[in-house]
Amino acid sequence: MKETKKYEKTKRQEWMSILAKADPKLLNRLWCDFSDRPSWTNIRAPETGMVMVRGKTGGVGTTFNVGEMTLTRATVRLDNGISGVAYVQGRSALKAEQSAVLDAMLQDDRYATSTFTSIIKPLEKAIKKQKTTAGKKAAKTKVEFFTMVRGK
Amino acid sequence: MYVAVKGGDAAIENSQTLLAEERRGDRRVPELTLDQIKNQLSISVDRVMAEGSLYDRDLAALAIKQARGDIVEAIFLLRAYRTTLPRFGNTHPIDTAKMQIRRRISATFKDLPGGQILGPSFDYTHRLLDFSLVENSDSPVAEEASENILAEMPRVTELLDDEGLIEKEIDVNEQEPFDVTRNSLKFPASREARLQNLARGDEGFLLALAYSTQRGWGKTHPFAGEIRMGEVGVEIIPEELGFPIEVGEITVTECQMVNQFKGSATIPAQFTRGYGLTFGHNERKAMSMGILDRSLRSKELGEAINAPAQDEEFVLSHSCNVEASGFVQHLKLPHYVDFQSELVTVRALRKATTFSEKKEDSTGSKNVEGAE
User: Domain limits of chain B?
Assistant: First the structure.
């Protein structure tokens, strides 16, 4: 039982992260194309605030405050009572509300599979593609320095 | 004492309209879009976010547009805006070891696991004006290597750590870290308070002070152990969920300065650390921060304190360009009453002097009256 719950959590953590990192324009397009949606009510209307980003000295030591970043959160409830939560970077109320609805839909047996396939998968693919391109472009600038021996 | 003045509404309003017109410039030239600023002036955006102490590319771009490219003014705008937002909480400390690296170099080791990644850098450019940019040109598209870079690159400091050649970085703080935005800074300041202050401090001020240490004003013998730039995930634990979620990704620059230390009665000779971390791509700032973090540790390491860059009160009290700019520029505001009282005093003093020293010559004070 506990194991299952943990697994669920991990999956949910993954899709929440994908939604948070998704390009808002792409998310909106996929959202509009996905017409089979339940109705929902806002439990907590989208609200923009900040979180204090923290770092560690030397990357590993004492925690310190670096600066804040904007964040928008929203909570919704579907017609059948399942609730969804979103915390997404930036100030887009639309993205936060869409993400919260999708979070609920992904926990709802009626929509879980189709939502995952039509929304999460393409978002994940786009993020991965962007990362791979950036990584390979960086790799192309890998340098070998030689130390020169003087004299002789 | 400053005494306020009233009036001037119409002139102020007209001045602001004129400012708006000047901001727009020649109307035959297309207006700048925020997308253009975000994409093509990305380093300006990075600086405004770092010193504005708010990571939001859209807001930083807007601030730059509104401030007509005046970066310190844009920082002020962003700082003012952030005070209107509620704070939802704190993030987990970002893990720079898991950074999606776009640049990573070391000036201390040429061969390191993962290699030296130059990334997009001005370093090896010739600093010659590129006239091909005068006209809109077809910018080249960077090539991709067949292999991706190493997923997780070890930090250079960890290589030294293994041999015990560098001081250990230990988490000494059990409580919440000091927050300079919520509490006023007290001296002596903790290292975490200093680092937060430096992270939002003025790049020019930090650069000049770091430079002063290199020129002998509190020398710390730094090496750029490692500089890395790229994207890191930001994680929070929302109360209602109780488990961590990644809420986004930010670009940061990290600098690990490695400094000579000859040791003390209790510590063997080893390298010491200075740490710099900034929002966005900003190596000049991250390096300056790393050098200053180390120079401000002089007292802790038992070194003589004889230079400005080692004096934490001097450094930390003057690093904020919003405060500095405000206090210097407030001198432009009407000080009429203030100045009148000074005038009265100076006149009185002069009268007294004239009377005692030049009794016979009364024209001096008359001339002053005439000059009013």
Answer: 9-82, 96-121+147-326, 340-370
Model pLDDT, residue A4: 39
Q: What is the pTM of this model?
A: 0.91
Interface of A with B in 24-43 (CB under 8 A): none
pLDDT in tens, B177-194: 999 999 999 999 999 999
Q: What is the mean pLDDT of the segment spanning B1-15?
A: 82
Say what the ipTM of the complex is.
0.91
Q: Domain residue spans in chain A?
A: 2-42+73-139
- Token pair in block for residue B348: 């009185």
pLDDT at B345 over 90: yes
Q: Which structure tokens are listed for B112?
A: 């390191």
Give B-chain residues touching A140 at CB under 8 angstroms: 142-145
Burial B183-203 (b: 16+ CB within 10 A, else e): eebeeebbbbbbbbbbbbbbb
Q: Nearest CB to B102: which of A49, A61, A134?
A: A134
SS3 label, residue A145: coil
Q: Which residues contact B104 (CB under 8 A, 6 or more apart)?
A: B114, B116, B117, B119, B153, B226, B227, B228, B229, B230
